[in-house]
Amino acid sequence: MNPVLTILEYVINLFAMVFLLRVLLQLGSADFFNPVAQFIHKFTAPVINPLRSILPDLGKFNLASFVIALALITAKIFLIKHFFISAQEAVMLTPQVILFMVLVGLGPISGLFMVISNLLLILFIGLMIASFMSGGRHNPGLIFLIQVTRPILRPIQRIIPPLGTIDLSPMIILLGLFFLQGILYNFGVSLITP
């Protein structure tokens, strides 16, 4: 694989994750005075604040941040297709397949879903490690992770409440994400294979 392509993909995915974290911060009503939350707010503010007049929030959902993350993933797909795909790989992406993917939003939406699932994997693993390492102390990083994952964990915890100190909801969410990720991958492969 082309090293420039790999670096470009990781950098764009990282920026998309930061904007998605901004969405999760607002959904979880996270503490703005947390140093990690302040960094994310200051980093995304130059892009998000001008867009908020055009794309206002939908309740607690930060629509501008979500649209920016989706635009980053769409730009990544465009760049990869036009500059980094070889002639043999381009043959598989016929105009009909590309038109279908753009019309349905399959490329950007599935790419965004992959970034979201990777972000959630990082957050939940970080939450587990930080909860063991903090020893019950109030650590800003642990508080940030709890506040960011709260909107995702809360619906599952209503159905399956934590069993004492054991909370199965992160594992259920991760298993569901891996299952859906596999379905999307297989569907994408079926589109481009003859």
Report how far apart the termini are.
23 Å
**Segments where pLDDT lies below 50 for 5+ residues?**
none
Largest sheet: none
Helix content: over 70%
Q: Number of DSSP helices?
A: 8
Mean pLDDT: 77
Using the alpha-carbon principal axes, give the shape. Answer: globular
Structural class of the secondary elements?
mainly alpha
Number of strands: 0
- Please compute the radius of gyration using only Cα atoms: 19 Å
Order of helices and strands: HHHHHHHH
Oligomeric form of this entry? single chain
Strand content: under 5%
Keywords:
mainly alpha; 194 residues
Task: Give a verbal description of the structure.
By secondary structure, this protein is mostly helical. Helices cover 79% and strands 0% of the residues. Helix 1 (3-27) packs across helix 6 and helix 3 (63-84) crosses helix 6 (106-134). It is globular. The two termini are 23 Å apart. The mean pLDDT is 77.
